[in-house]
Amino acid sequence: MDKCEKFIGKITEFLDQIAGLAILAVMLLTVANILLRVTVGTPILGTYEYIGFLTVIIIGLALAHCAFQNGHIAVEFIMDKFPEKARLPIDFFTHLLSVIFLALASFHIALYARSMVLTGVVSPTTQTPFYPFVYLAALGLAALCAVLLVRMLKITQKVKTHE
Fold first, then answer.
1. Dist. CA 102–CA 67, nearest whole Å
2. What is the tens place of the pLDDT at every residue in 32-75?
3. How far is the C-alpha of 144 from the C-alpha of 138, rounded, in Å?
4. What are phi and psi of 129, to 5 degrees?
5. Which of 150, 132, 5, 163 has the alpha carbon at shortest distance from 61?
């Protein structure tokens, strides 16, 4: 289990590093666009679209690592009042629902990206295909699903030790 968790951690860290590079690209693109607009009078064509694409990369690929580090906000004030023996099944059930939802969402987003490949959907200004970014969003959700699946398995181990 620890090897699996470490492997998932390395994958999410790699995806998070890509998201960090995308943040850097957004910053550089924004600054370059402003400087070119002010100095030369000509902005970079499609800046709005590129920043939108990069934002998909940032959010989609950073989610899993944030979850891996327990960085998401969790409202546990009600759950803290229950004994751990009662909390574990509830945690398992919520993780199970989350895994099912994220697996389905990732799968259907990948199907949507496939349909974009087949129809040739591109952005209006730069004619950049949408599908690579939609596939990256599906990948990010799949990685988040994997993180929650590992957590769910750890909860199962805790339940077995409490019996």
1. 13
2. 999 999 999 999 999 999 999 999 999 999 999 999 998 877 66
3. 10
4. -65, 140
5. 132
Of 53, 28, 25, 44, which is closest to residue 123 (Cα–Cα)?
Answer: 53
Helix (H) / strand (E) element for 63: namely helix 47-68
CA neighbor of 62 nearest in space, from 141, 7, 149, 150: 141
Residue 129 or 87, more confident: 129
* Amino acid, res. 140: G
For residue 129, what are the β-bridge partners?
122
Instruction: Residue 130: give the domain boundaries.
Output: 2-162
Mean pLDDT of 153-160: 82
Q: What DSSP string runs through 106-154?
A: HHHHHHHHHHHHHHT-B-TTT--BSHHHHHHHHHHHHHHHHHHHHHHHH
- 8 A C-beta contact, residue 146 and residue 98: no
Q: Distance between alpha carbon 145 and the CA centroid of its chain, in Å?
A: 9
Q: Are 116 and 134 in contact (CB under 8 A)?
A: yes
The span from the CA of 109 to the CA of 74, in Å, is: 26
Please tell me the total count of domains within the chain: 1
Residue 142's closest CA among 55, 60, 66? 60
> Whole-prediction pTM value?
0.89
